[in-house]
Amino acid sequence: MSDEKMKMESPMEDEKVAASETFEDNSADDAVSHLDAKLGALEQELETARQDILYAHAETQNVRRRMEKELSDARAYAATSFARDILSVADNLGRALAAIPADLREDEKFKGLVTGLEATGRELENIFGRHGIEKIEAMGQPLDPNLHQAMMELPSDGEPGIIVQEMQAGYRIKDRLLRPALVGVSKKPD
User: Fold this and answer.
1) What radius of gyration, in Å, describes the C-alpha atoms of the chain?
2) Percent with pLDDT over 70 in the chain
3) Percent over 90 (pLDDT), the chain
4) Which DSSP symbol is given to 162?
């Protein structure tokens, strides 16, 4: 009976072992699927982190470039406000020199004064040049609204739209307009 008992128990044992193996296979498959899903999620998180790092790096470079440009502009144009103020001094000096009659220029009493005023005007121009401030050429040029401000039109036989009178000199600092030239522009006669 022991053999029969064994034979009877043996099929049941085989079913238990088969069921256990199936359960273990299903558990293993479930575990692998779970690990694959977890690995996929981690890979996605890693890719997201990589993108965030790239974006942060790009933003840092952009901020650095903007700051370098702002610093460069600040250096180049720091004197803009002061230069605008000093232009009126240059204008007044030019008007004073233009107002001196020719006979007083030759008079020995005034010759030193005239020479001093002219030297001051030249020095002012040199200082402007060292700081990137240059006078805008206007006379005989076509009107450029970016550089010139037309104050009046004057009848002329020449080509219309050409500057024929300059009332106030215009200046630029580096590549920016500091002050437009105030000009009279030619027009066809009526």
Assistant:
1) 44
2) 87
3) 51
4) B
